[in-house]
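Q: What would this complex look like in 3D?
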Amino acid sequence: MSSSPSLNTWSDALSGFSIGWFPLGLVIVAVIPLVFIALYALTYGVYGERKISAFMQDRLGPMEVGFWGILQTLADILKLLQKEDIVPTAADKFLFVIGPGILFVGSFLAFAVLPFGPAFIGADLNVGLFYAVGIVAIEVVGILAAGWGSNNKWALYGAVRSVAQIVSYEIPASIALLCAAMLAGTLSMQQITVMQTGPGGFMHWFLFNNPIAWLPFLIYFISSLAETNRAPFDIPEAESELVAGYFTEYSGMKFAVIFLAEYGSMFMVSAVLAVAFLGGWASPLPNIGGLHLNDMTSGPAWGAFWIIMKGFFFIFVQMWLRWTLPRLRVDQLMYLCWKVLTPFALIAFVLTAVWEIYR
Amino acid sequence: MEEAANQMSPAVRESKTAYDNIKERFGEAISEFDANPTMPFFEVLDASRWVDIALYMRDNSLLQFNYMACLSGVDYPDEGKVGIVCNLENIGKYTHKLAVKVKCQRDGGSIPSVSCVWHTANWHEREAYDMYGMVFEGHPDLRRILCPEDWTGFPLRKDYQVQETYHGIKVPY
Amino acid sequence: MQELGKAESNSTRIIRQDDKRVIIEKDLDTEYMVLSMGPQHPSTHGVLRLECITDGEVVVEAEPYLGYLHRCFEKYCENVDYPAIVPYTDRMDYLAGMNSELAYCITVEKLLDIEIPRRVEFIRVIVSELNRIASHLVAIGTYAIDLGAFTPFLFCFRDREHIMSLLEWISGARMLYNYIWIGGLAYDVPADFKKRVAEFIAYFKPKVVELYKLLTENEIFVKRTYDIGIMPADVAINYGWSGPMLRGSGVKWDLRRNDPYSIYPELDFDVPVPDGKFSVVGDCLSRHLVRALEIDESLKIISQCLDKMPEEPNFNSRAVIPKRIRPKAGEVYGRAENPRGELGYYIVSDGKSTKPVRCKARSSCFVNLSAMKDLSKGQLIPDLVAIIGSIDIVLGEVDR
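A: Here is my prediction, written as structure tokens for the whole assembly.
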């Protein structure tokens, strides 16, 4: 399936732009999301988490490095870079090293299909949504490699729990996303977003333009918390039970890479949620009479702004939950997945199908 | 005797009543009642009957010493003995309290374990063994509890000399 | 019996019994794994080590190992004078220093048989109840963090900080006070003391409600603690449990009521015991509830003390402290209600020396922890963490 040519003219033109033999435009298109995400994950994700948690807990958080501690994460990264790269003698060296790599690659590969605006998309695959779900699942391999390779009982527990959790929660998450795909009639991330644009702003979003989508929306949001190991489902890294879970033995830059992957996938699931149900880069503002708010706030730059804002909003909700709720127990987590979320996801699937037929 | 009983505070009089009950049952196996106001106690003279006494104290409907507040090891170098002091009382029904002393020979002596009577005694007896070195017969798991397993000597004995080195580490500083 | 997994050949059945213990039946050959939990582990509250034999996530048996923080308290006591022991008692239960001091001082005073000025008694009760609140805040906060809730922990520490500064203001130290002395106090309280304590109470009361809403009524928190680690009342008594642990099992036993000391008989307060409506009597949630409710009771006690405390200008808090403390020969077992239970001291004096011949500390945590082996059988690892947290141990007191 090819995407709408009018929307992609700008990015096509950019992709075609080259200096001599060097395809500069293509590099820019590919690099912009990645550079942005890397920067975001490195600084604002971690910094935001620390500040948000601090404000929720009546603290100030980092205040020393830079204005209001804005350079704190940079200082942390510098520190982590300088640290000795330790591989425990008893560890399986190959798995131990490759674990964080797979995690990182898995979480960042998904950004390729994420539409950052009408013009910015790494690869507009016709199976984009499917690809995003699938590639994130690679993380499981990385977690298992890290946990097993550490040769540490706590890490092994963490890895086993994590794999069980992520594999289980893939099911309700995928079914919920499938509902969005049905509403759109396509798996292309760009097309799904285009389906939700219009002069009515947020009125065209799947969440608001039909009576069923709130159910898969909630299911996907809950499952995405579990998939990214965020509280209240942070059982794989439950620090009071398993010390640090699968990355107990990691330190220095390897730890930073795992950390980065976690924040990367946090943004990824939030962005997928935004694309599937909240119109991706579409502006929420409607055209009211003569006031063309929607038209004024649409375009490549605005698109990137909206999807990032939507992503940030869900990251904020994730953090909010994390700093409020205690952690579930393993069996309660599985109960929630198999006996609550999965049946409801199937119900949502059927309802969506019925809606699609009879609307 | 009557006068002495009248001088006792109500708390001690309660203990005395409980003591009389035990004395009636066990006779010569236990000593006279020590009616001091701070901690009235009696001593078990025949240590081999200590578990019987303990069970009687716990299960007799008039005594019901179901709560062991404390079990402390004590060293009596003058008598050549080490012993334990148990502070017993009842939760729920009565307000009486009574302390019981059991002693044994300093070297190689043993006291029957009452950890089957009160679970509290389990760790406290381990601690007393750790610090004083008396053996508790019938204890399910008599190991050192606070000191390392390979520590030499029993630290709270009055004649304890600390070992010079422990795994190559100088101990006295 | 609730079967969690289906039985087939070559398979594993995980069965949760009626008493919430998990047993595993299987036709496969598997091995137990020995898991050493601690001494460096985030949820063992210090340097406790549990040697767990685990079958997957299920703890078959957990054996506690102690002594990593053993500082020879009892040996030291035999070598220093009676008043010099007071600072050491602070270091046992370092979260409730005032209560430890109070227990020790009333024990020696019992042996000395001296009368304490009323104002001193009131100040002692106020500071020890303040310290009880501080200690319960740490207990509740760390319990929250054991179960994965981080924010209540910091809320608790924020409020505890106010108590710490109050106590620092009157004694000069934040945790290890050496404030309550045998026969008196180190100093009288500062002039504005009553006002500032009243301010604190006014500030703190809404925060207790907030904490209650944030943590105790949280669905997930209740799910994690409800019906976990049940200890029946008779077994709890047999284990020698005391304090919130025993009350959590439904036994209304508080030394402030049942073996009154100081001015507690004059004060009006309840002894909270779970009624079995919100929690199962004896489970982790009951023990948490008792602590949460005790904070309210302590606040009540402090308000009453502030009203009743006699004002005496130029009060000398050291007036009746004996010049030389040498009790007559004898032995005494004295105790007080510590935040964690009964803290008792068994002291033997020979009547000649200014040092005790024997000073044994009956630590509440030590006794409460001894039930760990029994409680941990057949629990999942997350439940094990919940149980350790509900016991609320301070290793300084366990190991002494």
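A: To summarize the key features: The mean pLDDT of chain B is 83. Chains B and A do not touch (no CB pair under 8 Å).
Q: Very helpful, thank you.
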